[in-house]
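Q: How would the structure tokens look for this protein?
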Amino acid sequence: MTGIRYLCSVPLPAAPPFPDPNLKWMSNVVKQWDGVSKADAGILGIPFDRGVVSHRQGARFGPKGVREAFYSNTDYCVDHDVCYSDMSLVDLGDVEVDVKGYQETHKRVESVAEKLYSTGIKVMAIGGDHSLTSPIIKGVCRNLPKGGKLGVIDFDSHFDIRSGWGENSGLWAREILEIEGRPVDGRNLVQIGVHGYVYSRYYREQVKRYGLTSYTPLDIRRKGMEEVIDEALEIATDGVDALYLSVDIDAVDQAFAPGTNAPFPAGLYPQDLLVAVFEIARHPLVKGMDLMEIAPPLDVNDMTSRLGAEILLYFLCGLKTKK
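A: Here is the predicted structure in token form.
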């Protein structure tokens, strides 16, 4: 046990039975957190998907699926010539969720997030449905200085600013804009990847009213992800004290990420997302991230779980090469 209420340790997957003595696996690098030690970054699982309102559930198995893929990777990034062995990395465990209690689980997640972020550890949370980003960010905001502001960059196919639906994953972006004290301002919230035929002009007007900035996959095709991320970072960090990253895997084209409750065609390419995650993690204000809505029961040959693991690894790579 970690000593934090509602947080429990989980067994870590063993290293792959591969005989090459010149390789070191992430399972050899990441340690189970003792609840006290400082660390550069840590993995947190939140196995809860009651916020999924469609019939395509399964994101509650995301933490297990992504962990298995993550720990089967080596500790070396060929793209950036970076090794993670000299980083202090921990597995923080899982939040003990109330399977039938949406509000209760959100309270637990907020409490755990508040305590974890007070340690200075860069938390990489794995969901779970995207509603969980709301209580995580509330926990992050509790660690801001008085009157502090938080910028947010969100990769998603959806605006997630609905209201009046009660309990679902499409509310979180609006909820964080309504946190007491307004630590998240709409002008510091950037959404990348919103597209498809799931909204109406009403919601586009709501986005404008809140002051959000959004980029579609077509915008990225025209501008390139590097330019979009430069703009997004400038917007999200303008006048803030900290930066947070949220990745809903449904922002990625369904050809590369079929294992999610809301897959869509014409989404982002994995390489573009990895470039973005790396650059965001390098920013000095970044405090943590989440990875949501990977549903292993809906996956094909673990494609989506493996992509999720790669996203976490690129976030770590960005932290290691932070500006």
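Residues 303-320 form the longest helix (18 residues).

Residues 71 and 233 are 30 Å apart (CA to CA).

Upvote if useful.
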